[in-house]
Amino acid sequence: MDEPKARNEHLDLVLEAAGFDLWENDLLEGRVVRPVSKVFSELGYSPDEVVTTIDDILSIVHPDDLGALRLALDAHVNGSAARYQAEFRIRAKSGQWVWYANYGKIVDRTGTSPGRRLVGVSINVDERKRREREIERLNARLVEQNAVLQELATSDAMTGVANRRRLLELGEAELQRARRLGHALALLILDIDDFKQVNDAWGHLNGDHVIRRVASICAQNVRASVDVVGRLGGEEFAIVLPEISGESAVALAERLRGNIAAQQVELDGGASVTRTVSIGVASLTGGCGTFVHLLALADRALYAAKHCGKNCVRAAG
Fold it and tell me: pTM here?
């Protein structure tokens, strides 16, 4: 056996041992000089079904992968990429799509003229790609689950509005932003009047219906993604109103009070009930250094509303 032939056979053995399949294409004629026989055998094709032109190869590449494959080939042909490298799916005879990686290089490029021979190797990367896809799927699932957990950690389980901890966090952030920029900020605290009577007369489950309905009315009457509705606890709620003056906050509180008083809440067993709320309003002043301070001002205003006969709005002086 002559030395060049022996070297070629040795190269073929090394490539086969590494899982590579050597190929060669004539780019100018669009002809397959050396086909990837091992690849086509893996894909279930018989020897007489092995393709002989580059167009034949492209015809069994997944349509979604053709664009990236052509871009990779063009980048190498025009000299902007040192070698051709692409990963794409090939259709097996069974119809299944199998992932392969191609690595190649033009071996007879002369001057600025395009080369004729593109020589390279193919390797089956289907298992790796499927593992990557599974990891991507699991990561996406993990992101979704984390979002759900975050939502559960920051939302009130009964009403879906912000829980107390989240309300305090967002309220403090809005207060500091308003102080830094010199903008307005207002806060409402509302409490359902004589709520104990609902629990005593119709039970705690029906009391929960009332709480949820009041939370829903509050959420429907504020600016989505701007204002923050939160449940402080029990039958008491707070609403953080960025960029809202005290006067506008009082007007909003009056609308809320009227809407809630007019709402018939359906109870289990076919009965219905109406409830009123008392609301305290506070707005940011120079003396308010923290959100807790603003809460205290609104709470005092709520206390005044309760002592004025309930079902009314009072603003902090």
Answer: 0.59
* Amino acid letter, residue 231: R
In 106-230, where does DSSP find H-type helix? 126-154, 164-181, 195-202, 204-220
CA 73, CA 92: separation in Å to the nearest integer?
A: 23
> Worst-scoring range by mean pLDDT, 49-53, 62-66, 80-84?
49-53
CB 179 within 8 A of CB 246: no
In-domain check, residue 140: no
Q: What is the CATH number of the domain that holds 305?
A: 3.30.70.270
Domain ranges, residue 254: 157-315
Please state the length of the chain: 317
Q: Which residue has the higher pLDDT, 114 or 102?
A: 102
> What is the tens place of the pLDDT at every residue in 246-299?
999 999 999 999 999 999 999 888 889 999 999 999 999 867 889 999 999 999
Cβ neighbors of 280 (< 8 A, separation 6 or more) are 188, 189, 190, 298, 299, 300, 301, 302, 303, 304, 305, 313, 314, 315, 316
Q: With DSSP H G I counted as helix, E B as strand and the rest as coil, what are the percentages for the chain, rounded to 5?
A: 45, 25, 30
